[in-house]
Design a protein that fits this description.
Helix content is about 65%, strand content about 0%. The longest helix has about 35 residues.
């Protein structure tokens, strides 16, 4: 899909089911597996299975595979390999535009003002710092959420509740189902 093409899709039931079942299985692992190392291994299996099922059996997975294929074909057509390295460097001429002088240097017409009406680009360092900050924030929130869910399950276990982590998983799985079902409608909201 391009940004100009309207997105008219509804929730894929397979995506919704995979999101819910994967979430329930993820959070129910401590009820089945006690050693911490084994829980990590079991959660890796659950996440990998969910990802494989999503890519192989949902509409979003088909779109992702088509996107990867089109990128691969475009890279091959441009004469690059999968790593982005030039396959035939001597057969291509440079298609890069001529470098413009910096705004504070004297130009041929003896002016210092920029010729462009474009806004000043954001420095790459700022973009990198913002991306790193976003990753750190997302990771911190994910770790805090995981710790909360585990502690909640352990509190239920201490009260003698049977399958306490599975109960937490059912609540979070219901939330995952709701979000997976709502996601296409959120994208379609701009077209209404």
């Amino acid at each position: 899909m391009t940004e100009h093409e309207p997105t008219r899709r509804s929730a894929d039931p397979r995506t919704v089911a995979i999101a819910g079942l994967t979430t329930v299985a993820w959070y129910a692992v401590p009820d089945v597996v006690r050693p911490r190392w084994a829980r990590a291994l079991a959660k890796t299996v659950v996440a990998t299975t969910g990802a494989v099922l999503t890519v192989t059996s949902t509409a979003e997975g088909r779109e992702a595979r088509e996107g990867v294929r089109s990128l691969r074909d475009a890279a091959r057509a441009a004469g690059t390999d999968a790593d982005g390295l030039d396959v035939v460097p001597s057969s291509r001429t440079s298609t890069l535009p001529e470098a413009e002088p910096a705004d504070d240097t004297v130009r041929e017409d003896n002016t210092y003002a920029p010729d462009r009406d474009e806004p000043t680009p954001v420095p790459p360092g700022v973009v990198g710092a913002a991306a790193a900050g976003g990753v750190v924030l997302a990771t911190a929130l994910a770790v805090a959420g995981e710790k909360w869910a585990y502690r909640r399950g352990e509190r239920l276990r201490a009260r003698g509740v049977r399958l306490p982590h599975a109960r937490v998983g059912l609540a979070l799985g219901a939330l995952a189902v709701a979000l997976a079902a709502a996601e296409p409608y959120l994208w379609n909201a701009e077209d209404r």
